[in-house]
Design brief:
By secondary structure, the protein is mainly α. The chain contains 17 helices and no strands.
């Protein structure tokens, strides 16, 4: 039996031991690689332990002797072993060898990473004091500070300047560290945490510088704000004092030109005040806001009260705006008031003319028209009175009250309105009185018109009757009828004259009766012509009837006398006295001629209505008594009725 066979168990145990250690070493290496390449960020000490462990494991990385010994030993041991066992052991060893072969590049790569990682961790260790320095300066820049006055602020500024100087002194070093980190980051094996370190360093540096600069700026602003606050506070109070004075100076101006001009000027002034005061207050308030940040708590209310006082006083700006809006409204109302007063003044002139035209119209106007126009005018007066009442109410509203000082311009408006009211009342009283008169005139006018309605138709008929004239009577009876008719016309004319006079008397009671007087005068003239004509007719017809009646009486008397003489004369007595008969006949002839002349004269009052010359009187021609005696009966029969009609009965 050979040596290997005799010592197989011992050699196999040694083989298995070295095989197991080989496997354990690879397990440990893989575990070390995992720890080194883990995502966990170690401290530099922790990573150094892992790095050292990994590097110690990586000594004799090739392990050529071990692999050769294991291979040779396994071959020797397995020579006389079963094929299955040989195969199993060979496969097992082969897998270990392949695992080792695959592990070598990974180990080499990890060794490179480990060096890079170690540089990064060393870089991180170097950053610690830099971060401490930066954090210290940042904390000093963000630390809450208090400043109760500008002296405190100046002290804080000095301290902050030191911080800024330190930052500036360290700037190059920090920038170099950032550059170093960025260079390390160029290595593809660089761990991710380095990017975080570099980024954090940049951000910390920039943030600290920003905070330091902000603190410096805040302190400078605070220092400036102390001066600004005091300066602007005083200036704002001065401006507000001026605004108070301006508010008191805004007054009503009772002048249609000066008022709007003053309003426009004060609007510009108010706008300027508002702009200036708001700008100054905003500056002062902004300064206080800056100061409030660093003010001690016990100092804050005092500063806020000073700002609040300014804010409260700024209410004057709103008051000025309200007063100016009131003045603008007042100016508009005053203008409307002036237009209303002017309208009333103009209308009163027109109203005066209307009343004068009613009282003394340029052409004939009936009392009804007068009353109508008067009532229209009175209605307009009532409307204007209501309008004037509104003006008076407006006057009480926009003009100074009793006891207040009234400017001369305001007095002019008030006096104008008083004059309008006085004139309006006087005109209203006059129109009322005239309307009352004209109302009475309507009654008298109606009486006058009633009289004219009776008189005028009669007048026209009477004139037509006058134009138709007198006709020649053919008998005494007809003459008496014509006389009676003429007397009736005369009596009727005189009766109608009384009607006209009553109408004229009613017209005289009217306020204005000029037209009525003209009508009455015209009618009276026409009546006089007709009446005189009728009187002439009555006179002539009376003369004619009297003459005719006397003629008939004489003819009858003569006829009776002749008949009496004839019947009473004894037979054989002497004839009638020729002288007596001739005397009677001459008398009859004369009377007949006179009657005929009177009848002929009636031609002057014929239908033409014109007076014609009277015929020339012809002296009677004496005729022999016998001829007259023969004519007497004929004349008597022709010219007279059976018996004479007395004048009274004819009338």
């Amino acid at each position: 039996m050979t040596f290997w066979q005799e010592n197989y168990s011992f050699i196999k145990e040694v083989y298995d031991t070295r095989y197991t250690k080989m496997v354990e070493w690879m397990d440990n290496v893989e575990m070390a690689i995992q720890k080194v390449c883990a995502s966990k960020v170690y401290t530099s000490a922790e990573f150094k332990r892992e790095k050292d462990n990994f590097q110690s494991l990586c000594k004799n990385l090739e392990r050529a002797e071990t692999k050769r010994w294991l291979t040779e030993t396994l071959e020797t041991l397995m020579k006389e072993r079963a094929a299955d066992e040989q195969k199993a052991e060979s496969t097992k060893l082969k897998s270990v060898m392949e695992r080792h072969k695959a592990l070598i590049p990974k180990i080499q790569e990890t060794l490179v990473k480990t060096e890079c990682y170690w540089k990064c961790y060393s870089y991180g260790d170097d950053l610690i004091p830099i971060f401490e320095f930066i954090d210290d300066l940042r904390n000093r820049s963000v630390k809450e500070v208090f400043s109760a006055n500008n002296e405190h602020t100046e002290e804080h500024i000095e301290k902050q300047d030191k911080v800024l100087n330190q930052l500036e002194n360290k700037r190059k070093m920090v920038m170099d560290f950032i550059s170093k980190g960025e260079k390390l980051m160029e290595d593809p094996n660089c761990p991710k945490f380095l990017e975080g370190h570099v980024k954090k360093l940049k951000e910390a540096w920039e943030d600290t510088n920003e905070k330091a600069q902000s603190r410096k700026k805040a302190l400078v602003d605070n220092l400036n704000s102390w001066e600004t606050f005091e300066e602007k506070k005083i200036e704002c109070h001065k401006q507000l004092d001026a605004a108070d004075a301006e508010f008191e100076a805004i007054k009503k101006i009772f002048d249609l030109r000066a008022g709007p001009q003053d309003y426009n000027m004060r609007m510009k002034t108010a706008s300027m005040f508002r702009t200036n005061i708001e700008d100054i207050f905003n500056t002062c308030s902004g300064a206080n806001d800056i100061l409030q940040v660093m003010l001690p708590d016990e100092k804050k209310p005092e500063m806020n009260d000073q700002t609040s006082e300014l804010k409260t006083r700024m209410d004057i700006l709103a008051k000025i705006d309200e007063r100016l809006a009131f003045i603008d409204d007042f100016n508009k109302r005053l203008n409307i008031f002036d237009v209303g007063v002017k309208e009333m003044e103009n209308w009163l002139g027109e109203g005066r003319k209307r009343l004068d035209l009613i009282k003394t119209p340029p052409e004939e106007m009936s009392p009804e028209d007068r009353v109508t126009k008067s009532m229209e005018l009175q209605e307009d007066l009532n409307k204007k009175s209501e309008f004037t009442k509104k003006l008076e109410v407006e006057k009480d509203d926009i003009f100074p009250k009793s006891g207040e000082k009234v400017s001369s311009d305001a007095k002019k408006f008030i006096e104008r309105l008083k004059k309008v009211r006085t004139t309006l009342n006087a005109l209203d009283d006059e129109v009322s009185a005239e309307c009352a008169k004209f109302s009475e005139d309507v009654k008298f006018w109606a009486e006058f018109q009633t009289g004219l309605k009776v008189f005028e138709p009669w007048m026209k008929n009477a004139e037509l009757r006058k134009i138709s004239g007198l006709k020649k009577p053919s008998s005494l009876v007809e003459a008496c009828e014509i006389l009676g008719d003429s007397k009736n016309l005369q009596d009727e004319a005189e009766a109608k004259l009384r009607v006209l006079e009553e109408a004229a008397s009613a017209a005289q009671k009217m306020t204005s009766h000029h037209e009525a007087d003209i009508k009455v005068e015209g009618f009276k003239k026409r009546w006089t012509v007709v009446h005189e004509c009728f009187q002439e007719w009555v006179a002539r017809m009376t003369t004619l009837v009297e003459c005719w009646n006397k003629l008939d009486g004489n003819v009858g008397e003569l006829s009776s006398w002749v008949a009496t003489k004839d019947s009473s004369a004894p037979e054989g007595s002497s004839e009638i006295s020729i002288e007596q008969l001739e005397t009677q006949l001459n008398t009859l002839k004369t009377m007949f001629a006179e009657k005929q002349k009177l009848v002929s004269d009636l031609d002057a009052y014929g239908p033409a209505g014109a007076v014609v010359p009277a015929p020339v009187a012809v002296a009677p021609v004496e005729a022999p008594a016998a001829e007259l005696a023969a004519e007497v009966p004929a004349a008597s029969e022709e010219a007279a009725p059976a018996e004479a009609v007395p004048v009274e009965s004819a009338a």
